[in-house]
Amino acid sequence: MASPALICDTEQWKDLKAHVDDIKKTHLRELMSDSERCKSMMAEFDGILLDYSRQCATLETMNKLFKLAEAACLKEKINKMFDGERINSTENRSVLHVALRAPRDAVINSDGKNVVPDVWNVLDEIRDFSERVRSGSWVGATGKALTNVIAIGIGGSFLGPLFVHTALQTDPEAIECARGRQLRFLANVDPIDVARNITGLNPETTLVVVVSKTFTTAETMLNARTLREWISSALGPEAVSKHMVAVSTNLTLVEKFGIDPKNAFAFWDWVGGRYSVCSAVGVFPLSLQYGFSVVEKFLKGASSIDQHFYSAPFDQNIPVLLGLLSVWNVSFLGYPARAILPYSQALEKLAPHIQQVSMESNGKGVSIHGVALPYEAGEIDFGEPGTNGQHSFYQLIHQGRVIPCDFIGIVKSQQPVYLKGEVVSNHDELMSNFFAQPDALAYGKTPQQLQSENVSQHLIPHKTFSGNRPSLSLLLQSLSAYNVGQLLAFYEHRIAVEGFIWGINSFDQWGVELGKSLASQVRKQLHASRKKGEPVEGFNFSTTTMLNRYLQESSD
Ligand code: F6P
Predict the structure, then answer these.
(1) Most exposed of 237, 305, 424, 457 (fewest Cβ within 10 Å)?
(2) Some GO term, biological process aspect, for this entry: which one (predicted)?
(3) Looking at the predicted complex, does its ipTM rise above 0.95?
């Protein structure tokens, strides 16, 4: 079946549009009282339980969404991704991040070539190099072991690795493996970020990893030059070869920068930046910190979800269910945002990472064929771990705008605390909130309930909760490296499903280019004006005024 020019022109889309009124008439309180419905709105895979019964949807809605998936040729599109077809058509690239975590004996082709052996060659190199650094057989210029790593990179070359590092930092197995080591991330070109990264570190014991797919990103290259200077001014220029290594698809530019390509780890143009955490981008710095065997478990977790996504029927396929429900919330119910609410401090960098994966992938205004979309694609992602978020923005979620929420709970804490004399453990306390919040959102509190509690009449409007606010809950057994990999893959595939349904290219990012080229014009002008001591010209009134104020006051 050929995929439709625009999904909104299909009968299945129109049918869902017509169905919205029925759903809007039905409160979640009613939907939740149907236990058969609730039972059907659960899915389980490899230790993870998804409960989507608090979505404003019925089984009829789900059937209509499955029909929409068929109309959008979802299965064919998933297959094309796994088959290495060039589905990123504007960059003429295949999209094969699943190959990065495939087992050694898997076969995944790009342009007729099995890429899995190349993936494992790099993984083997990483295992070997990281072991040499960790064991102290690769030392710095003064003979000292390199116990500290600064990974320089931005966007996809930063957020995913930071998310995984933050999640593993408190995992008992990972803690053991990271003893005596530090991993830091330098992303922002703001010199404050440089200062934060180098404070307290000795160049003699520091290894700098420059992570950049293109090796041209302005911020990363300036930060790399800054830390090269930090090393060479302390230890001499020859020390750079011992203290700087790289991860990139562009080994020619790595060499030009002065890093021996033998000390660089490659990846490929079929790995999108924001989907690159399972390539050397994440695997190398994380292996330096935790050892390859911990990171391998993370890859295995992601791979398990890849298999599930590829083969499970849609009504049991967790990423497909998650993706379809997102489309339902955004395009039909008109809720454009999504809150990502992990009840785990270890997942504090999940939302920032998913923000990039989701918003850079699906924040598009045209279809994959270049036709302006008559509907909005993409969603606004934000989030914070519970319970912190409860004391921040949950007010708006409970009584202000409707924002579908992802609640993520962990059965076994990485760091349990049982205080004598307390009724529940600290983790039980956290999880009590995880279980309570979805019901508070779904059921709300009626004026009648408030009256029966003798609440003063004038406070009743303020204390009423409308309820009927959708959420879904994911329950993970623990937060091991394996589980972190699973969680990552759930979100990556969910976002792909949304893009496949909306009929957009989720794998390019042209929207980031305009700002970059304007910044380069400003940079040129700033440089010229400072040199000549003259004001800038040629911009609009507003930019010229601001720039000249900046020039004047920063050179005082
Ligand atoms: O500006 C956006 C972007 O291109 C992201 O997609 C990418 O992850 C990031 O910049 C960093 O790019 P690179 O890895 O090439 O330095």
Answers:
(1) 457
(2) gluconeogenesis
(3) yes
